[in-house]
Amino acid sequence: MTFKTLAAAALSTTMIAGLALPASADVSTRTIRVSNGIAADHPVANGVDAMRACFDERTGGAWTFNAFWSSALGDDLQATQMLRSGTLEMVITSTSPLVGINPALGVFDLPFLFADAAEADAVLDGEFGDYVSSMMPDSGLVNLAYWENGFRDLTNSLRPVESLADFSGMRVRVMQNDIFLDTFQTLGANAIPMAFGEVFTALETGTIDAQENPYVTIDTSHFDEVQKYLTNTHHAYTPFMVLFSKPIWDTYSPEEHDILVDCAVIGRDAQRAASRALSADSLARIEGNGVAINDISAENMQEIRDAVQGVYERHADEIGQEVVDRMQAALAELRD
Length: 336
Hints:
This protein is of the alpha/beta class. The protein has 13 helices and nine strands.
């Protein structure tokens, strides 16, 4: 007989009203709030839904999982600080805003790190991902799993980018992130840090020529209306981290820890699948709206990769040389 059947029978027999019983004596009735900087139609919602279903099954309905979207509880950095203080349970955030909390996370901003999604999955879900996660408790955070923000690609209104020379002088909006700024300046572009909300108008008015984002963001932000070219640069892959408050984690039982991690991994698989399906749909829509899409030849891509090696050297100290070395060793092992 399943637990749910036993619980239902017990409720009927003892006339206890309303609440499902916890899955065991080590699982308490809890409310978990998760903050997201993105909107509820993003693939993160697929992961959240899968987590919620997993929580329901594993706890017998003892946990309530409430999602807050579009920075309703503050932006990702603010929400993460709430985790550290123990005033919020969970946040799903890109690694990039958190480099001030843990500089090692800057390793994921290094240019042309992963060749494809399979490589990213293998590194994040393997020993290197565990290594980075092991650093987080010292910052008051527990990383439950790595989800996907995705590869970033370049759009512009000037020309197809087919070689290193094509970056020259191009005014490219980038995140307010030192590694991104350095990467595009090293490539010869005029890198301009700008708040995301200003990008569409800046592209429309010609204040900037180009921007870089994942396909889904390009599509949903309608950048294809003000851009002519999209180049599959795949110059950066940014993961999401599913972070839990360490002060609150410490009040949970070992069984509850297992539930959090296991359900975050189930959510990861659902989120990545949804992200990749939506990404393919977005790219098709962008092309259908008249944007010219091109790849870069292997020879020219190697020249571009070689050009940005100095970015690795210049930022190794702030990230941590050991972190950079371990990342490169993990990639070398995969490619061997």
